[in-house]
């Protein structure tokens, strides 16, 4: 039998294993941190929702690593040695919401991530810039790539649900253009702090490239961190616009988004509508149905009231037609009284 310790609103369970189990209002929490595990243990609480495996020596995530724990919502694997993630190792976690893989050795971003995932932390991993496999995580809203030694801005697929992107402390990022931002058409926060080579003064075309990015972020309401506030684009240099007319500081195209970026943005928004329209349609349909039902009830109530009023008026009118006028009633009463009074006199006359 497992010893159970109750402390406040939490329940702690010790069963002789290295990990500590506890339960609170958020569900079961299993803490296996600092236990020198080299692989994911398979004999822990199967109902775990928050699984802490930080500060171990786990190097590979196999397809069956998390099969015993289908209810995980928050998975912490920071400060391990993870270098390989099998394609389907995380796909079975259909309720996974937050995945922390920071401070590992991941080079290729994991594919086959569950649709439920909203937050992915890959900080301090030597990941490749090709991150198109992340497109399978259609619900991803936050992506952290701080200090990943990226050589360029990450190449993302169409990710319309991404809201926050952190690529700070990646000093080798040299370029950024609206087409790269357009694949994340609903991005609200972008952190590029520490990208010291981005839009460096003296670079050919840096002035217009910077203006295009600034114009894009202002138009689409993206909060941009790391370029100052307000952004100070570098001054034009001699020769700007000779190789590319868009880099001519005196041209309208200098700050205008290229057609390619607009086309990608349109594709991204269409994908967002495709993913989210069913929910909006259902909500709108329910709202319309409720409004119609309320309106119908109001109309029926008003109609019943009018009918009752008409029926009452008709009844009053009918009762008035059947009852004689008050003057006729009085006359009939007087006649009747007179008749009663003369009847004895008539009898006496007859007797005489």
UniProtKB/TrEMBL annotation:
Residues 308-352 are annotated as: Disordered. The keyword Repeat applies. This is Immunoglobulin superfamily containing leucine-rich repeat protein 2-like. SUPFAM superfamilies: L domain-like. SMART domains: LRR_TYP (SM00369). The chain crosses the membrane at residues 279-300. Residues 319-337 have a biased composition (Polar residues). Gene3D superfamilies: Ribonuclease Inhibitor (3.80.10.10). Keywords: Leucine-rich repeat, Membrane, Repeat, Transmembrane, Transmembrane helix. Pfam families: LRR_8. It comes from Aphis craccivora (Cowpea aphid). PANTHER family: AGAP008170-PA, INSULIN-LIKE GROWTH FACTOR-BINDING PROTEIN COMPLEX ACID LABILE SUBUNIT. It comes from the Eukaryota.
């Amino acid at each position: 039998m497992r010893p159970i310790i109750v402390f406040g609103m939490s329940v702690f369970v010790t069963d002789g294993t290295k990990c500590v189990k506890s339960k609170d209002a958020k569900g079961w929490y299993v803490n296996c941190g600092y236990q020198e595990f080299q692989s994911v243990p398979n004999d822990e609480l199967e109902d775990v929702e928050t699984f802490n495996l930080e500060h171990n020596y786990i190097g590979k995530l196999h397809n069956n690593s998390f099969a015993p724990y289908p209810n995980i919502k928050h998975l912490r694997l920071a400060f391990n040695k993870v270098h390989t993630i099998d394609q389907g190792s995380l796909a079975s976690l259909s309720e996974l919401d937050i995945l922390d893989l920071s401070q590992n050795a991941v080079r290729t971003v994991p594919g086959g991530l569950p649709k439920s995932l909203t937050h992915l932390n890959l900080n301090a991993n030597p990941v490749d810039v090709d991150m198109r496999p992340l497109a399978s995580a259609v619900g991803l809203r936050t992506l952290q790539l701080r200090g990943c030694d990226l050589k360029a801005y990450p190449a993302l697929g169409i990710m319309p649900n991404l809201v926050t992107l952190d690529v700070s402390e990646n000093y080798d990022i040299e370029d950024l253009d609206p087409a790269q931002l357009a694949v994340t058409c609903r991005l609200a926060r972008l952190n590029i702090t520490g990208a010291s080579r981005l839009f460096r003064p003296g670079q050919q075309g840096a002035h217009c490239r910077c203006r295009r990015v600034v114009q894009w972020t202002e138009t689409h309401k993206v909060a941009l961190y790391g370029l100052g506030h307000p952004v100070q684009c570098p001054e034009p240099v001699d020769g700007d616009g000779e190789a590319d007319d868009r880099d001519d500081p005196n041209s309208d195209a200098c700050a205008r988004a290229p057609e390619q970026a607009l086309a990608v943005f349109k594709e991204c928004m269409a994908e967002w509508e495709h993913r989210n329209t069913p929910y909006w349609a259902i909500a709108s349909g329910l709202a319309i149905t409720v409004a119609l039902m309320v309106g119908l009830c109001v109309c029926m109530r008003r109609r019943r009231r009018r009918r009752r009023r008409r029926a009452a008026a008709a009844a009053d009118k009918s009762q008035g037609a059947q009852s004689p006028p008050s003057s006729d009633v009085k006359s009939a009463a007087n006649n009747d009284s007179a008749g009663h009074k003369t009847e004895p006199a008539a009898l006496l006359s007859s007797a005489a």
